[in-house]
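Input chain follows. Return structure tokens only.
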Amino acid sequence: MINSGDIIKSWKHLAAALPKSQANLSALMNSVKMIDVQGKTLVLGLASDVLVSKIDKPDQVEAVQKLIKDNFGVDVSIRCIVTNAKGKLPASVAQDGMVAAAIQHGGEIVDME
């Protein structure tokens, strides 16, 4: 089982560890505003449909899956969503989780470190 807190803590390091040939993916990973783990699915929230469409491609998703497997030893599926405005909870966020509580109290996920 993988913990979203562990992934959030190492997200910037994972993005930075990508080879230069994957600079676009690294930039997209740095654009992720929300990370949640639901079962074996890693949910990545981005600010717009454009960003989601850029990262939600088989080669990009496979690269992120490989990063997670190499660093955490687990296989995950990845779902990319558009996160809503501050204070609004994306449907994919567990309504009773820590992320939900923070967002409902005016929090905004702005940094993954």
